[in-house]
Structure formats: structure tokens, C-alpha cells
């Protein structure tokens, strides 16, 4: 068992506090010393530059899938040279009628450093990665791998 801690900090800084005027910008700080500027999505009156929670959620799912994929590939002695993913999260109303990130579609591009596995083997590694990804196991969001994933 392990704990994972993030320190989220926001301050009004003397500004007016109404729904339309309060500042959505804040920071996320992690135990490794990294601080990330964050805000709400611009559609919800946030700043366009910082990371928003929805983007971070999509990134966490993609990153977890990739790290699990790499671990499985390494155990199977499949050499991965590079792994790039353009993950896309879709926010829409869920079955309860509430806004949620209901789907995340991963679009990995994998470059192999040795003999390229066959498409079925790559699909099997993606399937195992999804089953073993801690983040995917923690959410109800549908996560799929789309199209060409280095096949």
C-alpha cells in the first residue's frame, strides 16, 4: 500500500469573490519538489495557459497506461525505442446526466528498438496494460486505444 500526496493551493488575494470574478488559477505541488500552475478550463472561466483538472486526468490515464505498457513490454523482452501518445478526453453528460470525462481515447505511436512484434502481440500488451493500470482501475471512464499504435 502507498499514499500519494498533492498540495493544492489557491488564494483570493483580495480580489472580489463572485462566480464570474474569482480567479481560478492555483498551484499543484508534489513531494518531488515540482509545482505545476493550474486553473479551470477556459470554458469554466479559467486561464488558458495552466493545466486544468480535465487535462491532468487525461494525462494521468495516458501516462499510467504507457508506464504499464513499458513494464509489460520489458518483461516480455520487447524493446521499445519511443512511445508517444496524443490522448483525447471527451467530456459529456454521463448516465446520471452529470458532466464527466466519460471517455479517453489513447493514440499511441510506438517505435520498436528490436524486432517489431506482430499486431496481435501489441494488442495483447495494450490489453494487459489497461487491465493493470492503477489509474484506469480507479475510474469509471472508458479508456480505449485507437487506430494504429505502432503496428
Instruction: Determine the mean pLDDT.
Output: 95
Q: Give the termini separation.
A: 36 Å
Query: The CATH topology of the largest domain, please?
Result: GMP Synthetase, Chain A, domain 3
- Number of spatially distinct domains: 2
**How many β-strands, per DSSP?**
8
Describe the sheet with the most strands: 3 strands, antiparallel
Q: Helix proportion of residues, in percent?
A: 10-25%
- CATH top level of the largest domain is Alpha Beta
How are helices and strands ordered from N to C?
A: EEEHEEEEHE
Task: From the alpha carbons, calculate the radius of gyration and give it in angstroms.
Answer: 18 Å
Ranges with pLDDT <50 over ≥5 residues? none
Describe it.
The protein is an alpha+beta fold and 151 residues long. The chain is built from two helices and eight strands, in the order βββαββββαβ. The protein has two domains: 39 residues, no CATH class; 93 residues, K homology (KH) domain (GMP Synthetase, Chain A, domain 3, 2-Layer Sandwich), CATH 3.30.300.20. The chain has a three-stranded antiparallel β-sheet with strand order 1-2-3, with no helix packed on it. Helix 1 packs across helix 2. The longest helix is centred in the middle third of the chain and has 23 residues. The relative contact order is 0.14.
Amino acid at each position: 500500500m502507498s499514499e500519494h500526496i498533492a498540495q493544492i493551493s489557491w488564494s483570493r488575494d483580495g480580489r472580489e469573490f463572485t462566480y464570474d470574478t474569482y480567479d481560478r488559477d492555483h498551484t499543484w505541488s508534489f513531494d518531488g519538489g515540482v509545482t505545476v500552475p493550474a486553473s479551470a478550463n477556459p470554458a469554466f472561466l479559467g486561464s488558458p495557459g495552466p493545466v486544468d483538472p480535465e487535462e491532468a486526468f487525461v494525462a494521468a490515464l495516458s501516462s499510467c497506461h504507457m508506464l504499464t505498457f513499458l513494464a509489460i513490454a520489458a518483461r516480455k523482452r520487447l524493446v521499445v525505442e519511443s512511445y508517444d501518445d496524443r490522448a483525447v478526453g471527451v467530456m459529456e453528460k454521463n448516465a446520471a446526466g452529470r458532466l464527466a470525462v466519460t471517455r479517453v481515447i489513447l493514440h499511441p505511436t510506438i517505435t520498436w528498438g528490436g524486432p517489431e512484434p506482430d499486431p496481435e502481440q501489441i494488442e495483447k500488451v495494450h490489453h494487459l496494460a489497461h487491465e493493470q493500470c492503477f489509474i484506469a482501475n480507479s475510474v469509471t471512464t472508458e479508456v480505449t486505444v485507437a487506430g494504429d499504435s505502432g503496428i
